[in-house]
């Protein structure tokens, strides 16, 4: 059996584990159930890929979307891993099953609706399993922003192999969701491992929207380098492109209403560019690896703090200074409240809690980063020194106050 570090070097060609990867992998190697909460881009896949190679048997990976599975399989095969998916859409089902039975698969991906069926359990009956990886594990919780009832049905499969370690992975889990994942998947409380969520090079700013296009144009004028502007609707994207386009920087649109060719072309142009602004709906950004994005602007509120963190997190992946600026209006919240009224009853409490958390972030006179990090379960300092609130009014007031005290002290000293 090869040790995890040797696999990291030899198979993946990476010099060192990042952040909590080693901690997560050690626990899985010891056969213990684990929930890893790690931000997007932190390297969650590696946390199951390495034990898949280091432990006997195939890793069963539960993943919610077929498109996502195929991306993962391509990436894994790029590192020389043997990976396949069992989905209703797959033509080579028989071949995959044969490879699984012959012990020729390191990773087998399956969607929850398939994995939770009896057929899947009996298929695995005599197959050695290295671990169960449950990707996007927040889908198991009604508190999560992406509830998938089929995730709830995985438990009999997991329980049928009690000695096989379970590794649940997610980027986005608040306290409720985490507790729920642990309970639903039978992971002990001490199995929770949370990565650092802070992105210190991102400067957060949040302002009321007075004149959205003008405010965004000013932001763009002040920020050289590539940037993303998120707008709530296709229509809003088109309008912004029109208004911003006249100002000298290359500006392109990205939304689901454009034909796939134009979308691909605009995305490729953005990835290549050193000064382009892309105005997009939230459809843009998934799976895009552009490290030098210098700013992310929101022309309206995102869906939740998790979404905000994920979307702003596309800025400054290279570690150089970057800006995230959100412009919000009271109408954004009114509309969001109205939408919540239209969703299923069982989901309304969760959605409302998510909107309230976002409102607190928007309205706080305190540190934005502190609110964000506390949301993800961290215990940050009171002030970060790199958000609008830390950088503006309170400092000025503090300085004025300090000056006043100093002056009065000098004055008193002078008198005595
Ligand atoms: P996540 O699922 O957490 O968003 P991924 O698993 O897709 O992240 O990994 C993001 C990128 O980081 C991938 O390109 C991956 O190969 C790379 N990566 C992961 N771990 C390491 C590491 N220890 N050293 C260098 N690169 C890594
Ligand atoms: Mg992932």
TrEMBL record:
GO-annotated biological processes: DNA recombination; DNA repair; DNA replication; SOS response
Catalytic activity: Couples ATP hydrolysis with the unwinding of duplex DNA by translocating in the 3'-5' direction
Keywords: ATP-binding, DNA damage, DNA recombination, DNA repair, DNA-binding, Helicase, Hydrolase, Isomerase, Metal-binding, Nucleotide-binding, Zinc
Cofactor dependency: Zn(2+); Mg(2+)
E.C. numbers: 5.6.2.4
Residues of the Helicase C-terminal domain: 215-359
Residue runs in coiled coils: none
Top-level class of the enzyme under EC nomenclature: isomerase
Assigned protein family: Belongs to the helicase family. RecQ subfamily.
Protein name as catalogued: DNA helicase RecQ
Native source species: Allosphingosinicella ginsenosidimutans
Gene assigned in the entry: recQ
């Amino acid at each position: 059996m090869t040790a995890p570090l040797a696999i990291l070097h030899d198979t993946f060609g990476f010099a060192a584990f990042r952040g909590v990867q080693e901690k997560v992998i050690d626990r899985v190697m010891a056969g213990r159930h684990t929930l890893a909460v790690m931000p997007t881009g932190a390297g969650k896949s590696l946390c199951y890929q390495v034990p898949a190679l280091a432990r006997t048997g195939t890793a069963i990976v539960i993943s919610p979307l077929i498109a996502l599975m195929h991306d993962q399989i391509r990436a894994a095969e790029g590192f020389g891993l043997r990976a396949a998916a069992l989905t209703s859409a797959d033509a080579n089902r028989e071949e995959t099953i044969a490879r699984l039975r012959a012990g020729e698969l390191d990773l087998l991906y399956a969607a929850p609706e398939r994995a939770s069926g009896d057929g899947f359990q009996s298929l695995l009956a005599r197959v050695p399993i290295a671990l169960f990886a449950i990707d996007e594990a927040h889908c198991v919780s009604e508190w999560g922003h992406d509830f998938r009832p089929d995730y709830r049905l995985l438990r009999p499969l997991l329980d049928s192999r009690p000695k096989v370690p379970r590794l649940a992975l997610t980027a986005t889990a608040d306290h409720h969701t985490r507790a729920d994942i642990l309970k639903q998947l039978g992971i002990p409380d001490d199995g929770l491992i949370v990565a650092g969520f802070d992105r210190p090079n991102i400067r957060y700013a949040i302002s009321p929207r007075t004149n959205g296009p003008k405010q965004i144009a000013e932001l763009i004028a002040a920020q050289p380098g590539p940037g993303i502007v998120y707008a709530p609707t296709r229509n809003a994207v088109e309008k912004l492109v029109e208004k911003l386009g006249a100002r000298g920087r290359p500006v392109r649109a990205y939304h689901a209403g454009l034909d796939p060719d134009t979308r691909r072309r605009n995305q490729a142009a953005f990835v290549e560019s050193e000064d382009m602004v892309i105005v997009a709906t939230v459809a843009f950004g998934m799976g895009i690896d552009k490290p030098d994005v210098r700013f992310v602007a929101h022309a309206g509120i995102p869906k939740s703090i998790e979404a905000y963190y994920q979307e702003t997190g596309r800025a400054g992946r290279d570690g150089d200074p970057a800006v995230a600026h959100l412009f919000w209006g009271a109408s954004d919240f009114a509309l969001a409240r109205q939408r919540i009224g239209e969703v299923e009853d069982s989901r309304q409490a969760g959605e409302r809690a998510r909107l309230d958390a976002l409102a607190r972030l928007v309205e706080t006179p305190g540190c934005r980063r502190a609110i964000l990090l506390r949301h993800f379960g961290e215990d940050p300092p009171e002030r970060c020194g790199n958000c609008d609130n830390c950088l503006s009014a309170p400092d000025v007031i503090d300085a004025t106050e300090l000056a006043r005290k100093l002056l009065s002290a000098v004055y008193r000293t002078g008198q005595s």
